[in-house]
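Extended Data, panel c. Modelled sequence:
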Amino acid sequence: MLSSMNKNVQCTAWTGIASTLLSNGRTSASLFKLKIGNDSKTSNHSKGSNETKKLKEVDVIIWDECSMISKTALETADFVLRDLPDSPFSFGGKRIVLGGDFRQILPVIRRGTKTDLINNCIKNSYLWNQFQKFSLLDNMRIINADAN
């Protein structure tokens, strides 16, 4: 639907396997040039690169597996998207759609305690309150299986 509205959409996911299931999907680390070695606290993006120019043209980013994203990765992505156009708006004014199930795995923190895992969840980011939250109430897999 967004493509029919001439919106430039980029799909991303935290893991490589999930990103291959998305149309034109990329891993989040690849898309935002996140430095995984320092827990995604920084990025290697450069304003003049071709990839950065393409990212600047994106209107909507659909980010799957959001429960696995660390708050530092989300905040670094925000910094990258603000930095591209020198925008004061969150994520450079781009629409970000997060999808995921918080009953699944939380971010992985090397040698982290349960408290570390919870504290590094995107729900504890200063950006979290800027998202509008929706809950899916019907299990469509079960409903569709019954119909067949």
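Helices lie at 16-20, 28-32, 50-57, 71-83, 114-119, 140-147. This feature is highlighted in the accompanying rendering.
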